[in-house]
User: What shape does this take?
Amino acid sequence: MVGELRYREFRVPLGPGLHAYPDELIRQRVGHDGHPEYQIRWLILRRGDEGEGGSSQVDCKAEHILLWMSNDEIYANCHKMLGEDGQVIGPSQEITGEAGALDKSVLGEMETDVKSLIQRALRQLEECVGTIPPAPLLHTVHVLSAYASIEPLTGVFKDPRVLDLLMHMLSSPDYQIRWSAGRMIQALASHDAGTRTQILLSLSQQEAIEKHLDFDSRCALLALFAQATLSEHPMSFEGIQLPQVPGRLLFSLVKRYLHVTSLLDQLNDSAAEPGAQNNSGPEELSGERDRLELEFSMAMGTLISELVQAMRWDWALSRQRPLARSSCSIFQPQLAEAGPGLPPTRAQPSIRRSRRFRPRSEFASGNTYALYVRETLQAGMRVRMLDDYEEVSAGDEGEFRQSNNGMPPVQVLWESTGRTYWVHWHMLEILGFEEDIEDVVEANEYQGAVVSGALGVALPSWRWKPMTELYAVPYVLPEDEDAEESEHLTQAEWWELLFFIKKLDGPDHQEVLQILQENLDGEILDDEILAELAVPMELAQDLLLALPQRLDDSALRDLLNCRVYRKYGPEALAGHPAYPTLLEAQAQPQESAGKEPPAQYPDTPLWRLLVDCGPPGRTFLDLERALSSEGPQETEIKPFLLQLQRQPQPFLILMQSLATPAANKPLHLTVLRILMQLVDFPEALLLPWHEAMDACMACLRSPDTDREVLQELIFFLHRLASVSRDYAVVLNQLGARDAISKALEKHLGKLELAQELRDMVFKCEKHAHLYRKLTTNILGGCIQMVLGQIEDHRRTHRPINIPFFDVFLRYLCQGSSMEVKEDKCWEKVEVSSNPHRASKLTDRNPKTYWESSGSAGSHYITLHMHQGILIRQLTLLVAGEDSSYMPARVVVFGGDSTNSLNTELNSVNVMPSASRVILLENLTRFWPIIQIRIKRCQQGGIDTRIRGLEVLGPKPTFWPVFREQLCRHTRLFYMVRAQAWSQDIAEDRRSLLHLSSRLNGALRQEQNFADRFLPDDEAAQALGKTCWEALVSPLVQNITSPASPTALETCPALACSSQPPDEDGISPLGWLLDQYLECREAAHNPQSRAAAFSSRVRRLTHLLVHVEPCEAPLPAAAAPRTKSRNRSHDWSSLATRGLPSSIVRNLTRCWQAVVEEQVNNFLTSHWRDDDFVPRYCEHFHNLQKSSSELFGPRAAFLLALQNGCAGGLLKLPFLKAAHVSEQFARHIDQRIQGSRIGGARGMEMLAQLQRCLETVLIFSGLEIATTFEHYYQHYMADRLLGVGSSWLEGAVLEQIGPCFPNRLPQQMLQSLSTSEELQRQFHVYQLQRLDQELLKLEDTEKKIQGGHETSDKEHKGEKAEEAEGAVVTNVVEEEEEEENEDLYYEGAMPEVSVLVLSPRCWPIASICHTLNPRTCLPSYLRGTLNRYSNFYSKSQSYPALEQGPKRRLQWTWLGRAELQFGDQTLHVSTVQMWLLLYLNDLQAVSVESLLALSGLSPDMLNQAITPLTSLRGPLDLREENDVPGGVLKIRDASEEPRPRRGNVWLIPPQVYLKAEDEEGRNLEKRRNLLNCLIVRILKAHGDKGLHIDQLVCRVLDAWQKGPCPPRGLVSSLGRGSACNSTDVLSCILHLLGKGTVRRHDDQPQMLSYAVPMTVMEPHTESLNPGSSGPNPPLTFHTLQIRSRGVPYASCTGTQSFSTFR
Assistant: This one.
């Protein structure tokens, strides 16, 4: 059956490939706020189910969710459901034409016909009792069914006589009449859910209906219910083994379920439109609704109680104490293991410890502790396992038996396994005998030693947060409770207690009411007053003490499981949260009586079986005695059976004893005799036979069962199935047919009634299928109702007052205790040989075996696993008696197919004494094929024997199914709500201020729900993650998007209502953050409106970012997806990996856009200001503080701040950006020079420098960094040459080093370091030269003194030698004449330091600053320079010092000097030094002659003269008519007052560049030229593109070889004509940002041309026309001169200058 998908354009994603579509309006009501609410049905469809090729036909039985929505939510999510008048279009409006087709008169006639037909059918039915139904009766019923299918006539069929007619027809023994009744019910139930529920409810609530219905009639009604509810809750529990529920109990569950749904419909109808109600007053309506709510809660609690019992959850988990979940945020991801400083995620249970014996933590080593245990442990003492060891787990307790010298040496009888196992000494903790053991209530005492020893400090609680996280989890903190209310039970707790009071009968009920009246001043209590009572805690404690003695077995189990008992029960109040089971509570009086049998009970196997059951056991023994007497009377047996119905534990123990070993034959025969007798009593059929049928099947399947026992068992089962066919259905579900067939085959068919029993079981196959379907439908319906209550709780904010609501959720989250075994795990088993004996591996008979045939090492067993089964344990059964056939080494392999078994999973060496060999445990990956290979046999055997194979799969639970449904409902609810809130924000951005309180309320509600109802952290985290994804993520994406908030990529369902974007194109959150930044200064006043506004903004941003991104580590071997629904779904694929990171990404993008706009506006307004840099640094500092205030110290937002500032800078045109970079370089230069002042002013300069450097770091990686480096290089060079280097230069470069793409400033400092090393080597070189000259003088003197004492021959020879020596000396002197000019200088020699600077990193104009030492320096300086030149040229011949081509020195005017002028020390530049020294020989000198002599430019010379002629300078410049430029002379001391002592700084001031000058324009020209080259090269390579490294090389090659700049461009570009790879990369980044160049998606390193770009391409030529290669490298150097000795004074009395430095 198909229907139309009318609103396919509105969809909400619920999971991978899963979407929800709004379908139709079901009903409407008045909400808790007085506004109308509409229940909309949403269809759940997977991708591909929406219809092929645009078809809108879908299956009407598709899964759906019923969701209550407000008018605003419908308008925001599916506005097409609204009519022209703004009202929701309902089904009544769509079928108006069909309903109006029936005239009133015709309708009246048809109603009359129906009434007459009902009368006729009743009369005909009475007449045909006991006979075959006549044809007229069948025809009458057929006509009634036709009338029943007409919806306007539904009201007539609500006549009570129709129910009587249906009851008689369903009770009829004739099949045709029952079938006709079913057709009529189907016709009546086909209209709507309300009519169907009412009919089924009316039938099921008839008095004693079960007495009138036989097995077939009940099955017919159950089949009708199954068919009616199949489309309501199409939920699958595939892979989960549901328990076998008999038809009687199923019918009871159906009745409860129908009653609950009826009350739920009445509740919804009571909240319908006020106009639809009668004229009752508001108080009457409120009282009626309160009564319905109480009745619904009680009915829902009863349904949950019976369902828990039917699912056997109360027995499976009765001994498990429910642990309280820790109150931590469910929205923040939890760490897998608590690290240091983190609290544990859940409280540890109470443990037992010894009063006498020492724990392992008190010993220094494990060996010492092992010796202590060995000496102390005695037989019979209790021990606890400290470590996991093979089959024994840490925490298991047992009894020490013995020890020996083997390995392991200790034998313990473990309670967990029920058998002994050997372990090591150091693994045990001694508990001692029972009198030595005490219970420890404090959970952390046991682990306190470990934790405190590891940490050494107390662990902080979850409430602790650093001050920067003040707003981290406001929803976790509990709301303030009224002190008076805290002394009373909440309404939910009281209603849960009231549920048990209502369960009491007659006298017990009156006694409890009497207790209430006595404590409430004798007030008359009726149902209305009971529901609204405020019960004090003391009264609740009294009631909880009185109730256990008055409740039956099942109700008592419910009481012990409920929350109110755990909170206010006697054990909880005593401080010992013990959790006794029913048997323990009942066995306490018996324990004191000892184990000896009383005189009236003989010591029989039956007595020993029931001795621990207390009074119920004695009751059963009395029943057995009554049954054993001759001719037992029903009156004697009936009281015992009624008592067993209340306390069936002895009966269940009796039946479960059939599963004990076959050696208990006498017990088995006695049990079967008693059971055979019980079947004959009608009261006995009400006992829970189905709960122990597993034991009967175990006895039936066991190969060791004695034939006599087996025969008696078949007699009993046949009798039970004959009396109640429900148990034949249960046997069918348990697989009794195959078991009986195997038993007949084993005993050669010699089992009486076995064939009949097998046939009886086989005939119930259809009914077994119906029962399974009914169990699924009821469980699915209950889950849907629970989810509906959760959704109603979210919408109305009312507490959930349903008893056992938390119990039901706890069982759904923890699941079943059933295990997947054997054939449920695998599809088939294959063996290497003898396949006809492969069945012996799985027959559960240890006496049979599979024996292989083949060569040694070739035997294997292959398991083909069911899809998705993860092996929990794989065990091989062997026997030592097989000798050489027993395996010795087994290897297990896994693979995806039989051809890919390459992964070794485990290898095991089998001991000769082993019987069970565990091969695999707890696999985390699904392997389709598992192969067991027997590599070696014992004693070198060839063939092998395997006795059996056991496989345990995972314990299937209901949690994956419930999680899927819970996440679907939660996601749909909050996505709908998120869109509605986004719509409000789109219409009025000011409503964004209320988003914090809205979100906090929703998150707090989910947090409180999880703390109250969800049992563990896994369930809470699943709920929190889904809520955060569905609510916060769409909201964040909406409020951070500048376009329509409905245009979402991840949520197509939210793209239905198209809202125009904001006029200014800014997102709502961006607008809010802008407002926050604007009113930040005004918010300092806490009483202002701006402070309140800022507080709301901060609370909102902190709430949005408090969930940190968390990437789950990938498992080593990830399991593939399975087709089963019994698996875990991960919804994080809806967004990028880990949804919190996507939220943070959207928020950081929004913050980056806000910062970028702020920076752009500031730059546009203030870039020309004189104080631009300080104001920009202040603006940046304020943005940093705002980021910390809004988002905390998170690196993502700090990075967004930097990117936003960078984006603002990138928007500047080139010349403006160059101006900004020059201003920053100038500001840094001024602060570095100002810091030399020292004192407070110097410290202030350093602080301003530090703030500026933090701002400059943003230049890193931007195009502006190139120009910034250019200007910084110039100013740094002037500082280093004019003032000298300092530690601050290196510190600044270390901090802002990434801002220099070419690293030129760093190379400048490195060049200075290299120059200082050369200076030290030159000093050693000078000393060596001096030593050589002195040595020559000594030799010459010795020769002269010895010449007067030799003969004439010798004298002639000596002359010749002397002449020869003279020639050599003359030659050497000629070569070194210039070098030794100052060797014999008699004055104080100045100290000269030479700085060797490389033109590759120093900004030096080589032509304009060339110095000629021969003409411009005195002789006593030229000699030092000549010697340094010779030293440097010689150093070039040593490759260890210099690599590459040989370099030459070229002297420049750059440098500084210190001159002594009287009592003053003048600090001057090299040009000023030369000029002052030149005046030592002249009284005056013209500027014109200085220009001609030095070759300097007029600007440079005037720059040097200006400080010298200032008030502090020593010179005076006089203008003369005949001398251009004036005349310089030494100023007379009497002319101008000036300082006579100390240091005088006359170095020319720093000259700052202007970006608007020719140099800045040349940089722009170079950038444009490089852009043209990049675009031209990429165009030539087309779409294929070019690798970025190849592109850089081609651009540099084209720049060097041309065609590049035109002729004359070298001179016009000046320094800008140089180009390197960094410049090219900067231009590439610029073009990528502009969109002219694009990256390839699959290969980001590949670049290609994207769109045309308007660029002025100049005609280009080679930079060096006619040159054959690059120019040889030049090395420029400057001087640093320092004097030694006294100042030099001229011969005249006038003051003169001497070189001091």
About this structure: The chain has a mean pLDDT of 75.
